[in-house]
């Protein structure tokens, strides 16, 4: 390559870079979105007051009476079911405003015309009397009655009635806020207010000097300024010293569960995993990155560092680990490269269009700068690669260089908009989602020991879903201008992109545990592998972690998943289920040997029935002289000899893996349990969530019993019992104990009636029995089907005894499900737990 061509190539590259820099420097800050226009209609009440003579205005008087009482049953009829908590106090606040005016006051005519009523009733009362706000959870929307006018002795009184329903804890304080009237000019200059506290006592006054103060009534007069008062239940006493609870069962169980789960996870990796250097480096890197993700909890100014670690450092660490572990190079071709850069160019053109539409750079400057950057970059690529002499390669390099120049220009303008604070809102989430997607790409490559194009596409889609549903991504305003609006939230946990990324990382960790079971379950020996057992127990423990509560971390109230007792019980019951007494079961090597073992077992069952029949019929025949003792002994010896030739344990053929691998057994067991669990979604409600992670987390109740079914199939030879139904009954005992453990604290609540508690237990028992007994019946059929034998040889539909167990399970499940449809709000709250409200701004 000659010096002249080298100089030309570098010169064109500098021209391309200069065009990008010039466009970035010339870009103007984009103006933020215009504030929404006030489209509210003018208040006719205020307009009428402005027309009144000053003397008429001074003649007005305003009086407000506030009555606080316990909400009656008829007051709560319109409250949605499940919102009332019988453990709390439901109160009714009745507000009666009275405005007295002289007969020629123009406000009277405005009231009689009722312009905009009932929509403007709130405007009228807030303008004249000021808004009254009551702390506590609202049970129903505020209601307002039609204003009533009464005229006597040349004066007219307008009466407005407002009703508020609130729900507060039995020991909570109640605060009343009397806001200032918002009318300009003022409709009245002074307000006379009377409060009838009922079962409440006045604890604190702010800006109020009482004129009439008794136990049942407090009256005062205020001007056009806000005041407030705090009330306390008159029957509630306050301790002089608040005793700190030195021991918390929730904290103790949380720490114990965290220790147990950590131990199980470390054991699930196995010693072989830690013996490899790349794995130790990955573990050390993640251990360093994990505390850095907690930085925003202490100081939000350092949140950028947490974003860099999660969406840049961790993906690079995962890709480096995958590159060292996987022996083969990625099978990416030039076509793949063109597809990726093509998608990048489309995104870049989208950003350039945004820059033009919102005036960041004029259309002429964008076209000129983009054209110069792309053509100069392509020319530089041609100059650098001309010595190769391969025209297709030169053309490809030129196209890639032009695409790279356009992408770099779009990235520079996006960073400029980002620094100025006005940018397409979802563009940041898009970049973060693409960066985060590299983590599942590397994880799946390590799990499958190969690189895959399908995995890359799937990981990118999952990364997008972790950051929001398509409805959120395709919102009309999300690709326009950044608007100040709250982030979606789950309870008190705000779903920022960082929080969504961390939750997605936890979900990915769970998926990796399942993939590990898949990889280990390809060998029949995995049934006795302690690594596979620990991995399965870890999956169950994670599924039974219950969200709720919060902890104080550096004086910050941080919502965290409360590691519930159910996770510990799942650990104990699964170990009990797998480590029971076992018979020496000869495992069949293939389907042919399984068929031989099942047929031998069926033959021995036939001989056992024949022996029972011999003893039953022999008594009568020997007594009647139809059968001699030697003949009876001869038949008995013949049957016992035949049975001895077929082994001493007839049920061992039904306690084997049927010649299948653990994974091949686990998948159908999980599927059957999931299908049997779906009808109970009517009781618990369908899962919801603001994104993929929160949706999956909300759907855990549909996966817990199928996970027990997965364990049943995966470790079938090790599960307690000697045949499918006895193993299924042991599974039902373990699953039932685990499911009911989550309701222990609630069922011990004295405020919940015994009937409601029995109904909840019946619903859980019915669901567990239906799933487990159904799985046992399916497994009987599957074993016989794999052996090429009809199911009727072990369970006949004409026998009442044979159908007793499944019939009982179906009756219990159907009965409890039907009862749950008529269950009260208490049962509904116990089964579903505390409702997690998901608020989304779009």
Structural class: alpha+beta
Name the helicity range.
40-55%
Q: Helix segment count?
A: 29
Shape category: flat
Mean pLDDT: 79
Structure summary, number of beta strands: 18
Beta-strand percentage?
5-15%
Give the radius of gyration.
37 Å
Low-confidence stretches: 548-562, 820-826, 834-842
Biggest sheet record: 9 strands, mixed
Distance between the ends:
58 Å
How would you sum up this structure, described in words?
This protein is an alpha+beta fold. Among the domains are: about 1-30 and about 330-420, no CATH class; about 50-235, no CATH class. Strand 11 (about 210-215) and strand 12 form a beta hairpin. The two termini are about 60 Å apart.
Question: Can you tag this structure with a few keywords?
Answer:
842 residues; alpha+beta; 9-stranded mixed sheet; 4-stranded antiparallel sheet; 29 helices; 55% helix; 12% strand; flat
What's the topology here?
Elements lengths: L2 H24 L17 H8 L2 H5 L2 E10 L18 E14 L3 H8 L7 H8 L3 E3 L2 E2 L4 E2 L3 E5 L2 E14 L5 E5 L12 E6 L3 E7 L5 E2 L4 E5 L4 E7 L15 H26 L2 H16 L2 H4 L4 H23 L8 H24 L5 H23 L5 H30 L4 H24 L4 H14 L3 H4 L15 E2 L2 E2 L2 H24 L9 H14 L2 E8 L2 E7 L2 H14 L12 H34 L4 H17 L16 H16 L3 H4 L7 H7 L5 H11 L9 H18 L2 H4 L6 H33 L17 H18 L3 H8 L5 E2 L3
Parallel strand pairs: 1-9
Antiparallel strand pairs: 1-2, 2-7, 3-8, 4-7, 5-7, 6-7, 8-13, 9-12, 10-13, 11-12, 14-15, 14-18, 16-17
Helix pairs in contact: 1-11, 1-12, 2-4, 6-17, 7-9, 9-13, 10-12, 11-12, 13-14, 13-16, 16-17, 16-23, 17-18, 17-24, 18-25, 19-20, 21-24, 21-27, 24-25, 25-27, 27-28, 27-29
């Amino acid at each position: 390559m000659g010096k002249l061509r080298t100089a030309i190539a570098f010169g064109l590259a500098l021209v391309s870079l200069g065009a990008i820099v010039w466009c970035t420097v010339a870009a103007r800050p984009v103006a933020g979105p215009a504030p929404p226009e006030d489209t509210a209609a003018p208040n006719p009440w205020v307009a009428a007051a402005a027309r009144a003579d000053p003397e008429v205005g001074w003649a007005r008087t305003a009086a407000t009476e506030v009555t606080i009482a316990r909400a009656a049953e008829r007051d709560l009829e319109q409250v949605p079911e499940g919102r009332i908590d019988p453990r709390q106090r439901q109160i009714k606040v009745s507000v009666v405003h009275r405005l007295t005016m002289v007969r020629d006051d123009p406000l009277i005519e405005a009231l009689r015309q009722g312009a905009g009523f009932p929509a403007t009733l709130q405007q009228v009362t807030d303008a004249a009397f000021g808004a009254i706000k009551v702390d506590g959870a609202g049970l129903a929307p505020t209601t307002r009655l039609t204003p009533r006018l009464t005229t006597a002795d040349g004066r007219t009184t307008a009466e407005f009635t407002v009703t508020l329903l609130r729900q507060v804890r039995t020991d909570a304080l109640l605060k009343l806020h009397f806001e200032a009237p918002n009318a300009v000019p003022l409709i009245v200059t002074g307000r006379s207010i009377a409060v009838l506290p009922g079962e409440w006592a006045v604890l604190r006054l702010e800006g109020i000097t009482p004129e009439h103060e008794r136990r049942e009534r407090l009256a005062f007069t205020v001007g056009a300024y806000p005041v407030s008062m705090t009330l306390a239940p008159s029957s509630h006493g306050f301790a002089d010293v608040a005793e700190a609870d030195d021991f918390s069962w929730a904290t103790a169980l949380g720490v114990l569960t965290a220790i147990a789960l950590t131990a199980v996870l470390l054991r699930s990796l196995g010693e072989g995993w830690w013996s490899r250097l790349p794995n130790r480096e990955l573990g050390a890197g993640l251990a360093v990155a994990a505390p850095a993700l907690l930085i925003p909890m202490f100081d939000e100014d350092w949140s950028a560092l947490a974003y860099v670690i999660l969406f840049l450092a961790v993906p690079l660490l995962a890709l480096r680990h995958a590159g060292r572990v996987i022996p083969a190079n990625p099978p990416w071709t030039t076509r793949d490269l063109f597809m990726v850069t093509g998608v990048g160019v489309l995104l870049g053109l989208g950003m350039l269009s945004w820059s033009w539409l919102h005036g960041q750079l004029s259309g002429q400057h964008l076209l000129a700068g983009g054209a110069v950057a792309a053509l100069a970059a392509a020319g530089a690529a041609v100059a650098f690669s001309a010595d190769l002499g391969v025209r297709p390669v030169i053309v490809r390099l030129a196209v890639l260089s032009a695409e790279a120049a356009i992408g770099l220009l779009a990235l520079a303008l996006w960073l400029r908009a980002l620094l100025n604070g006005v940018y397409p809102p979802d563009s940041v989430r898009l970049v973060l989602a693409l960066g985060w997607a590299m983590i599942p790409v590397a994880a799946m490559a390590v799990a499958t020991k190969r690189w895959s194009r399908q995995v890359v596409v799937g990981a990118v889609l999952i990364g997008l879903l972790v950051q929001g549903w398509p409805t959120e991504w395709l919102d009309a305003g999300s690709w326009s201008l950044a608007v100040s609006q709250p982030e979606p939230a789950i309870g008190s946990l705000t779903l920022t992109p960082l929080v969504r990324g961390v939750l997605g990382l936890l979900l990915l960790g769970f998926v990796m545990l399942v993939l590990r079971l898949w990889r280990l379950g390809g060998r029949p020996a995995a049934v006795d592998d302690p690594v596979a057992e620990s991995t399965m127990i870890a999956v169950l423990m994670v599924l039974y972690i219950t969200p709720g509560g919060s902890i104080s971390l550096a004086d910050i109230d941080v919502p965290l998943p409360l590691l519930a007792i159910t996770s510990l019980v799942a650990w104990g019951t699964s170990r009990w289920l797998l480590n029971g007494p076992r018979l020496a079961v000869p495992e069949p090597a293939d389907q042919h040997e399984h068929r031989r073992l099942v047929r031998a077992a069926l033959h021995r069952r036939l001989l056992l029935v024949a022996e029972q029949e011999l003893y039953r019929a022999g008594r009568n025949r020997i007594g009647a002289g139809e059968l001699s003792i030697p003949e009876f002994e001869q038949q008995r010896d013949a049957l016992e000899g035949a049975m001895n030739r077929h082994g001493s344990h007839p049920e061992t053929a039904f306690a084997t893996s049927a010649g299948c691998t653990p994974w091949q057994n686990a998948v159908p067991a999980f599927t059957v349990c999931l299908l049997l669990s779906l009808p109970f979604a009517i009781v618990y409600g369908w899962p919801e969530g603001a994104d993929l992670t929160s949706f999956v987390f909300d759907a855990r109740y549909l996966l817990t019993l199928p996970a027990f079914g997965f364990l049943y199939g995966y470790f079938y030879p090790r599960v307690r019992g000697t045949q499918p139904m006895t193993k299924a009954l042991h599974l039902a005992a373990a699953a039932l104990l685990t499911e009911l453990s989550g309701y222990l604290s609630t069922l011990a609540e004295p405020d919940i009636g015994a009937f409601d508690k029995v109904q909840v237990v019946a619903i859980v028992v019915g669901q567990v029995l239906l799933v487990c007994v159904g799985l046992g019946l399916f497994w009987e059929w599957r074993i016989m089907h794999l052996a090429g034998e009809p199911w009727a040889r072990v369970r006949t539909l004409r026998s009442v005894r044979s159908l007793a167990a499944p019939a009982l399970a179906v009756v219990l499940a159907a009965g409890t499900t039907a009862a749950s449809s008529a269950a009260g709000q208490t049962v509904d709250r116990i089964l579903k737990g505390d409702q997690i409200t998901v608020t989304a701004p779009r």
